């Protein structure tokens, strides 16, 4: 059974690349382009892994990270922060499982997430 991966990234090109990398790693993938839609989806599903941008429209990645970490349904979810903001990445290191600084390649994300599969 495929494990669910949510790609929460507002850049459509990056969202597509990240989704394809996760699909290649064996995940069932859903792409979400804004923070408000991500909040709603996180209320409905319990993903295995979340690829999370920090700078999103409507609701920030930081707020989403807090939502994930305080919701019991998501206690086992892996969170990979993908951000171009190195300072923001450093600030969330304790709450994220991994922090990747953009640019991130298809191969990097595919290989990392492949290693994280159960």
Q: Could you state the CATH homologous superfamily? A: Response regulator
How many helices does DSSP assign? Answer: 5
The strand order across the widest sheet is 2-1-3-4-5
Low-confidence stretches: none
Strand residue percentage: 15-25%
The CATH topology, please? Rossmann fold
Arithmetic mean of pLDDT? 93
Question: What count of structural domains?
Answer: 1
Distance between the termini: 11 Å
Structure classification = alpha/beta
Shape: globular
What is the β-strand count? Answer: 5
| Main sheet characteristics | 5 strands, parallel
Taking all Cα atoms into account, the compactness measure Rg is: 13 Å
Question: Descriptors for this entry?
Answer:
118 residues, alpha/beta, 5 strands, 5 helices, 41% helix, Rossmann fold, globular, five-stranded parallel sheet
How would you describe this protein?
- With about 120 residues, the chain is α/β, with parallel strands linked by helices.
- The chain is about 40% helix and about 20% strand.
- The chain has a single domain (about 5-115), classed as Response regulator (Rossmann fold), CATH 3.40.50.2300.
- The chain has five helices and five strands, in the order βαβαβαβαβα.
- The protein has a five-stranded parallel beta sheet with strand order 2-1-3-4-5, sandwiched between helices.
- The protein starts with a strand and ends with a helix.
């Amino acid at each position: 059974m495929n494990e669910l991966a949510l790609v929460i990234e507002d850049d459509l090109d990056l969202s597509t690349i990240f989704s394809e990398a996760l699909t290649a790693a064996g995940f069932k993938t859903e792409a979400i382009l804004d923070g408000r839609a991500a909040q709603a989806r996180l209320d409905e599903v319990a993903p295995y892994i979340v690829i999370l941008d920090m700078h999103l429209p409507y609701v920030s990645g930081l707020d989403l990270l807090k939502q994930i970490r305080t919701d019991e349904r998501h206690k086992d979810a892996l969170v990979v922060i993908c951000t171009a903001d190195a300072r923001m990445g450093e600030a969330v290191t304790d709450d994220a499982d991994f922090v990747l600084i953009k640019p991130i390649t298809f191969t990097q994300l595919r290989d990392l997430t492949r290693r994280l599969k159960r």
